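Example record

The entry below shows one chain as it appears in the dataset: sequence first, then structure tokens.
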Amino acid sequence: MNRFFIIILSVAFTQLSFLSVHSFENKKSELGVYFGTKIYEERHPVDNSFFMSQEGWMMGINLNSETYDGSKYIGFKNRAAYGQVDYQSNGTGTMSSIPDYQLETTGYIGIPFEGSSNSRITYFTGLGGRYLLNASGLKLSSTGHSGYDRESRYVYIPFGINYEKDSFELRGEYLYFLYGQQTSYLSDVGSQYSDITNDQEDGSGVKLTAKLYSEGGMGYEFYMDYWDIADSKLDTTGNFMEPRNTTSETGIRVFWAY
């Protein structure tokens, strides 16, 4: 996997010698594909020690639309992904090739400011939603423990800044966590178990991207997404809690303007 990223990065940076001065577009529409690594980790709610982790890869498509109209910026970013992760826990062993499915959509509104040196800075906020299905149901770990499907839903507000200069674009977002919900389908383990839903109220995230445009409407975007979600509230029975967890994704997108 590391060799794959080295090859992709080499190809991307080779394009630097072919870049032309990029004039700012007032309307951007992009379709892309992406590939990256993913690390999910849960910590013990009492002593914050390691509890479990899932590591693997994600690949998917993204569709972006951005409009600059005078002093107003409106944007939409959407993505759908599939991947596989490997599970590891000190208590329940290991499990490999667990399917992951992810959907995310965010709408933005902001104010752009054009500089005198062929640059533009845009300050923005908006509203976003993220859905994840970790489908380990009907799988067994190395110690014989049964897996179960887990659904995660986030709603958040992004606050960020986007900087454009010639053919480069840098973007940073702080993600204010509004609400989350985690559903664990324990009924996958056996009919004697009931499914559990936990509400999540505290957390935050960060998104960082570096984009460069090349000729022919093609470009590259390097990205990093990070989430840190606090311990959830107890479920309705008062017995189960979703522990603190972090998720980090890093990778590259290749996109085409249309």
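Notes for this example: The CA atoms of residues 41 and 53 lie 4 Å apart. Residues 2-14 form the longest helix (13 residues).
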